Amino acid sequence: MIALPRGSGANKTFCLSMLSMFRHSLQTLGRLLLLLLAYGSVLFLSLLTSFLLRFDFQVPQEFWSRFWTSVFWILPLKLLLLGFFGQFRSLLTFFSLPDAKMLAWAMGISAVVCFAVWFFMQGADVVPRGVIVTDGLMSFLGLAGLRTGLRIYRERVIGVGALARGHRRRTAIMGSGSSAALLLRDIQSRPGLGLEVVCFVDDDRHKIGSTLHGIPVIGPRSRLGKLAGSLSLQKVIIAMSGAKPGLIKDIVVDLNALGLEHDILPSVAQMLDGEVTVSRLRPVDPVDLLGREEASLDEDGITEMLRGQVIMVTGAGGSIGSELCRQVAAKNPEKIVLVERSEPALFAIEQELRRVQPHVVLVPRAFDICNDKQMSRLFTSERPSIVFQAAAHKHVPLMEEQPTEALMNNVLGTETVARLADRNGAGKFILISSDKAVNPSSVMGATKQLAEMVLEDIQQGSAGACCFAAVRFGNVLGSSGSVVPIFRRQIAEGGPVTVTHPEVTRFFMSIPESVGLILQSALQARGGEIFALDMGDAVRIEELARQMIELSGFVPGEDIKIIHTGLRSGEKLHEEPIHLMDGVEQTVHPKVRRARNGRHHSAAPLADELRRVISDPQFDDRAALAWLASVLPAYRKRPT
Predict the structure, then answer these.
(1) Domain boundaries, the chain
(2) Are 103 and 87 in contact (CB under 8 A)?
(3) Residue 151 pairs with which residues in a beta bridge?
């Protein structure tokens, strides 16, 4: 006997649990019986049809007994094999290539077993061999046809019925290439998305008037305004993998003018696995409008540099550091040592890399680069061959208030890591610098220039084979603290969007592009270089703010206000184009140039001098600013 739990509440819970188990068992049994009936019917009809075809529908009476004898063992055999290959666990209305393979295996093995029985029985009481061959093929086609038909019924009938046609958004796909075709297939297979693709829009006159998967290709794009009304378009998806930013910008302007909702499918190059699905769609981003043509890199050379190596990335949780980790991990290094003092940021990039690149050994360490003992033990144990120094304080206004902290982290932290890299046999040390190091007007820029000078000291005094280099570039779109996420938040809050000055400009590049060019610079580094990345044309920040407001579907100045707050301490109105400055040389890569620091060498290493002055008990932020002005003439002349 089963002892029931005491108490009315416990009894009620127990009864509900037993009832739920009983209901689940009935549902499972009912589904199994349905599958047996469906599969059994198809298999019986396949065998019967094959038998009739063998005798041209004139079956001699004596062969019917063979047929019925065979039915009673061939059908159970096939059903048993279908169960073995998991076909009773799969849902009838969901059918794909893996299911087709399992069906082929089951029917193929059953045919082999039938042939073995035929030879063992010498053909007695068994259907003829021609029936066995035909039946194997027809059984596969019959089961596959059943599953395909049920899938089509689910997608085209049940799905459409579940979502009223009036609630489906009529959609056009901009472009008619392979990405657009794959996207259409994914949309058609998922009616619950509420999208109905009614046309493709393409400027290629050779495609206009043709159809793609049954959907007409109309065009050119200039006719979209007239066609949008007649077709009742509500949404446009941009699926033009090779489109340049200028074209995307023009398209977005046109779509905004027409009041059409729009999303964009990233290029296949951005989708590393090549998958084209609706889940990849996203709103048009400023990166799509401000980006440049993708830089071609020496992928073979970069891969050869990183493959099988132990790579250290400091600041691994930051915008640049985390992208460095992603791109390095894709080149099959032996190990990546991730150094990041922010535990949440370190945990996030570690978990991402373990999921995406599980073959790469990771060593995550929540260390401060200024901690000499911790970093020394880490270098001794891991012995990295290439070090990317991305750890830094980078926010200009914050560092204006904390110059001592900026000196400690950006200068002495860099010196600590670089010195340990040299002592422990690293081959290359790459410092991530900034265009703000050129004639610095801010504490952040000044400390970055000092970090470059520290590398020059270490390179000159190095007895090892390590080569030291720095890479300067401007702002990266979407990095933490940059204007894009700030503007996006301000727009989401209803405004206003704050711009420091109506004429302020900055140079921008995307995070992936900047990291790709950092790796290209590392490949070219031979020691003592300061590489300057080609940042393209300067972007007016107010124009960027207007574009982001328009991308969000609002009117700048009306729906969302733009206000000017004035330049902050340490900020310049225009950053200097580092790739066009005097003394900057062209390298083998068109977007990577080489600059020279041009400093006057002091008798003592700069880091030793800085440690000496910081150790003074009277040293404070005011003293830090005075010391910066004493060692950097350009900083001494900054506006006050």
Answers:
(1) 25-162, 165-284, 299-482+506-534+570-636
(2) yes
(3) none
Place of tokens 């959907």: 215
In this structure, are residues 475 and 508 in contact, taking their beta carbons and an 8 Å threshold? Answer: yes
Record the tokens describing residue 511, joined without a space.
């995070």
Instruction: List the CATH code of the domain at 165-284.
Output: 3.40.50.720
Query: In which region does residue 64 sit, left (phi positive, over 0), alpha (psi from -120 to 50) or beta (all else)?
Result: alpha
Cross-strand bridge partners of residue 531: 471, 594
CATH topology of domain 299-482+506-534+570-636: Rossmann fold (3.40.50)
Decide: 543 and 501 in contact? Cβ < 8 Å.
no
Length of the chain: 640
Q: What is the DSSP string of 271-325?
A: STT----GGG-B---HHHHH--SPPP--HHHHHHHHTT-EEEEETTTSHHHHHHH
Q: Which two tokens stand for residue 284?
A: 């048009």
- Cα–Cα distance, 444 to 625 (Å, whole number): 11
Q: CA torsion angle for 628, 400, 499, 493 (degrees, to 10)? A: 150
Rounded (10°) CA dihedral 168, 174, 177, 180: -30
Per-residue tokens: 260? 């059409």
How far CA 132 is from CA of 62, 110, 127, in Å, comes to 18, 9, 7
Query: Could you report the average pLDDT of every consecutive run of 10 residues in the chain (640 residues)?
Result: 50 60 66 80 87 83 80 86 77 69 87 86 78 86 81 60 58 82 78 79 83 82 80 84 73 80 66 49 63 73 93 93 93 94 94 91 94 94 95 89 92 94 93 87 91 89 84 77 79 86 83 89 88 81 83 79 84 70 75 68 72 87 89 67
